[in-house]
Fold:
Amino acid sequence: MPVPIEVSDSQFKSYQACPRKWGYVKLLDLRQDENKDSMHLGNAFHDGMEEYMKTGSMDKAHEAAIKALIESKPTNLDYVKMLVPSMLIGMALHWVPSFLKEFEPVSTEEWFTSTPNEEIVRIRGFKDLVAKHRQTGQRCVFDYKTSSDMYFRTLASTLESNNQLARYATAERRQYGSWPMLVALVFAIKPKSKDVGVACENARCDPSLYRMLVQQVTPKFAEFALAVEQNDILMAQQMKFYRDLVAERGPQACDYIPANFDNCFNYGSMCGFAQGCHSAHPAHQNLKKAG
Ligand code: SF4
Structure:
């Protein structure tokens, strides 16, 4: 019986951006040299929100967030140790009350697996927050994002074709037999100021930093979600092929995984593998010299 590959939403994104980079990280377990401060802030905020939605205690939320930050050691630890608690307070003041009027929380960080093809792929991940719509009793899935205002606008303009939300919708359908009523992205926008006092003040007091993008699971969105699932199966088939190839022939087999050189320089920074990239490809050697 073939062993399916387990893939998360972020792995699909990583594979789409550069299949070889995905191979380095997921198949060879190599770490890139990159700044992960943004990710650490996001993870700490997630941990804090999870605790707050479970217990209603802001003290416990702060504790969970600070613990995550101390463990992950971002380079700007002093700044984020003050900012994240302020963002949690802002979220609790400006988003949670209106959310609770309409929805009743069911679970936080709900683990899921969805198997659209038993031989090829098992899609897995966490749903940040699942809630019941109070009026209809239907399930709804929410995902937290800590982002810039620009990233929020980009996602807002492409919501109807958001693959992550599509994956939540199909996972719900496979797990529970029916589509959720809606899937949504909940944003805590990071204040721009580098002055920690100003940033914290804004995080606590500016309601416009807390926004929600809601996608109703209409027949049209459901159709899109099923198309995403079909495409995921095709992608996973390739990922599985490379996984098995590397398992059989060793790390050098990563050279057979296509490289996306358009992605080496992205969002203002160079790929973490660009210097000393583990491939003998001339394009990588040039990047190494340039570094
Ligand atoms: S340097 Fe470019 S091609 Fe090589 S792994 Fe990074 S993004 Fe992919």
Observations:
- Strands lie at 5-8, 103-117, 121-133, 139-147, 182-189, 210-216, 265-266, 269-270.
